[in-house]
Specification:
The protein is mainly alpha-helical. It has helices spanning 19-26, 28-51, 55-72, 76-81, 90-96, 101-116, 120-129, 137-151, 155-169, 175-188, 192-205, 215-223. Helix 2 (28-51) packs antiparallel against helix 6 (101-116) and helix 2 (28-51) crosses helix 8 (137-151). The longest helix is centred in the first third of the chain and has 24 residues, at 28-51. The model is unreliable at 1-30 (pLDDT under 50).
């Protein structure tokens, strides 16, 4: 995943690489940036829990703090499953503190950790458990789920989830990225009309985005 592919057209990638895999190879840094953005939002949730919520919420927040440190250090196994120093791991803490905001966040962290480790089925299990009511958090979770579905070969579900993520984000910086990815996957599925619709959303709704600069070539390609 660390080696970049020098290609501007996902559909011209080697046949051994799926559409979703090629996108993730090409956009590894972007995916990490979205995860980091999620961490920032999660930090806001944690501040709320520590300052306002009930004692159980504070206890839960303190319990997952070490996991956050492992997560930011990219030590995903320890973050998930704990260590020998008393930290239980996101998987156990999500269950132990179910019903709290911190327990809910443990589901999100666990899902992202599994995704980073390439365990996409487990990732979707925990990401689906996460109740993302917040407008900022929800798109990042959905986008991660879309990538996991794509990696598992569930391309129809991946495209639908990515389009949903774009709609929930309604963001000039993030939505076009999800729409581009969804469109490329739809092309892979020979659903060109739906791909064109995704690309035209960028052209019409996010005209000032970076992705809109050359969106016409995507629309032209999918329209053939």
């Amino acid at each position: 995943m660390n080696q970049q592919k020098n290609t501007n057209d996902l559909l011209n990638a080697e046949e051994a690489i799926s559409a979703s895999e090629a996108f993730l190879i090409k956009n590894k840094n972007l995916f990490i940036a979205v995860v980091v953005g999620l961490i920032v939002v999660i930090g806001g949730y944690m501040a709320y829990s520590n300052l306002i919520a009930a004692p159980k919420e504070v206890k839960a927040s303190e319990a997952i703090f070490k996991g956050e440190q492992y997560f930011t250090a990219e030590k995903y196994e320890q973050a998930l499953n704990g260590d020998s120093l008393g930290y239980a791991g996101f998987v156990k803490l999500a269950d132990k503190f179910s019903g709290t905001k911190a327990g809910n966040l443990a589901n999100a962290y666990a899902g992202i950790c599994y995704a980073q480790l390439g365990k996409y089925e487990e990732a979707t299990k925990y990401l689906n458990k996460f109740d993302a009511a917040d407008q900022l958090v929800a798109p990042a979770i959905l986008g991660t789920m879309g990538n996991c579905y794509a990696q598992m070969g569930q391309l129809d579900k991946a495209a639908a989830t990515l389009i949903k993520a774009a709609d929930r984000a309604n963001s000039l910086s993030i939505s076009p990225i999800y729409l581009i990815q969804a469109g490329q996957i739809l092309e892979k599925l020979n659903k060109n009309a739906e791909a064109v619709e995704a690309y035209k959303t960028i052209k019409n709704k996010y005209a000032n985005s970076y992705q809109a600069m050359d969106i016409d070539k995507y629309i032209e390609r999918a329209s053939k």
